[in-house]
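[audit] Reproducing an earlier prediction to check determinism. Same input, same settings, fresh worker. If the tokens differ from the archived copy the diff job will pick it up downstream; this log only records the rerun itself.
[audit] input (772 residues):
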Amino acid sequence: MTEKEYFDSQMSSNHNAENFDLKGLLSKYLKSWKFFVISLIIFLSLALVALQFISTSYNVSSKLLLKNETTNIDASGNNLVNNNPFSNSERVNNEIEVLTSVHLMRSVLDTLSLQCKFTAPDVFPEKELYGSELPFKIVVDTIYPLAYETTLKIKIEGDESFSITESFEDALEDASSTSSDYGYNRYNYGYKIEKPYGVFEIVKNDKSISKDTEFVLDFRDIDEMAHDYVKKALSIYVVNKDASVINIVLKEKTPEKGEDIINSLVEIYGLKSFLEKNTLALNNVKFIDNRLNTLSKELSEVEMNVAQFKTENELASVEFDANSFAEQEIDYGRKLTESEIELKVLNAIERNLRKGGNESTLNSLSISSPNLIYLIDSYNKLLIDKKSLQRTVPENNPRMIDIRDQLEQLRGNILGSLSTSKQSLRITINSIKNRSDQFAEKKQRIPSMQRQLLEISREQGIKENLFLYLLQKREEAALMVGAKQDNFTVIDSAITDYESGSPSKKLFLLISVLMALAVPVGIIHLKDSLNTKVTDKKDVEKKTSVSVIGEIAHNKSGKNLIEKGEEKSLLAQNFRMMRMNLDFILSEKKAQTILVTSAIKGEGKTFFSSNMGVALASSSSKVVILELDKHNPELIETLGETKKEYGVTNYLNQNYNTIVLQDLLVSVKNNPNLFAIGLGSESMDGLESFHSKKMVDLMEQLKEEFDYIIIDSAPISKLADTLALSKYTDCCMYMVRANHTKFNDLEIIEDIKTNRKFKNPMVVLNDVITKY
């Protein structure tokens, strides 16, 4: 059973033990109905007023569908990405990381010029103006660090101009006005304004619905804004683990600005992705072009080798030449046969002509010479005419004589032509035989040439295929250049969910109603309680599970500090016992820093801190007591010392580190090991100061210098300052004063333990009346 469960069971048993009268309780509430009505009116009024001052944040969301790149096919039909079952989810996570990057958010804020915050002057509570609420837009070129200390007041002077008044945080106190030395100027819309704090333009907003004429401009650090948006406001998650849909959600007080931020985020994300792909495509084109140039030279060399080989070997195509050689071999054989036949015919004609008295006609078939054919035809015709005349005329007829003379002359001509034709045919036959022998030789060399040409052609083919492949890839890469193809689809553009307003007005009012009912109930029960104050240790143990480290007897002497010679007094023994109990309870780790607090003023925090410091210092430990109760600083006075000029507030508020630890320490007389540090003479905001770096430095110095550090803090129920000291302390002493502290105040220490607001919380019961 946990401590809280034990505490609840004890409280439950106590309630059950009492005579619980539900009817009487309701009757008691009804009698006080006016109190409930008044409380309800007050709390609802406060809630309505508070809602006017509380800024409501809305959820602005957009939904994107990331395209599945595992199904992308290039122009040749090849899958561009391996089908990896984990690649899609990994890609979605990668894209989410890109979308949530501070660099991308900074680009969005810079594009929208959101480092400029516009508000209306003298309006409370302050409300940021944006978009259509402004009659102009600002386009920021450059912002310098001085801008963060600069406030501009912009006043509309007409339809085309405006004026600017500048003020600076570091302006001299005796300056006659809040404007700086840079002056008051009037500008036209679109004019480029160059100032020591930045360069920007103000252009007219045609979509403005604002009727205001004065506006306040403050510059903000865009890097800090980007970090805040990414870490605190932006949320991106996967809608469904089985899909590539992501939801972008932004918490923003101004819906229009939130929608612009998300839409710009998606737009710039797509643009950056496009530019990356475009750059990659351009690099691919450049690489392919270089490779094509090299390959073109190599291909030209190979083609020249092929041409040279074919020229040297008189080849057009191996297969064609082989077929051509076979056809020509047949053709040459046919021509050779024809020529030989013609030669035989010519020899036969010659023999026929040389025979005396042979008057038979000559055969001109298979003769290729036109002249010879003509002579033979003429000869045959005359011979026929002669034979016809021989039947009718005598041999001495002049006509017969003339025919015989012509035949004789033709015979001579034919014999001469035969000699020439025969010589020509012999030459042709020899030529045909020589050409036939050459083709036969080439035909035998064709397999060898075919193999050599195949090797050269194979290299040519490989380079041609590679060249064509690179040309195709170059076209694909060239098509990618300038072609904007987003890797996502916007399912829903940025839209504001007005029902998601935070804090919820309905919930806020409901809480107010509950508080309005709870307060009267609590007051009624508080008034009716018979015993409202702690009287002894049992009351503390009954109401809280926090250990009681010790009791301090009532101080009858009236002295605030245990002096020398009083070590054996009951009061001194009480503090010595608490010192031993502290070491025993925290035996595993020494409690170096001890925080002393209580619920309200007057519980004895300062009295306990002073005397506990004396008790610890008496054991030769070096002790320092820190006064951090800014509303009731009584430590130095209780110790009987004089306040120093500097205290904690002076140290924390200094700008140039001129005040050191030794300037703060107050030595307690008669206690060489005991020192104190007063609150100081300056005011401070406890929450801010206690979280500051100087506070951290101070505590680190004290831990190095002293064995124990006791912090006399403010009451914890009234201020939150004490909670800010939790990170410096090792244990918390919660003061409870007998017959003074109320039971309800013990709930604070129980809450401290339950919620672990302080390390090692313990109760000290003060001002106990002893019976002896």
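[audit] rerun output stored. Observation attached for the diff report: Residues 356 and 408 are 11 Å apart (CA to CA).
[audit] end
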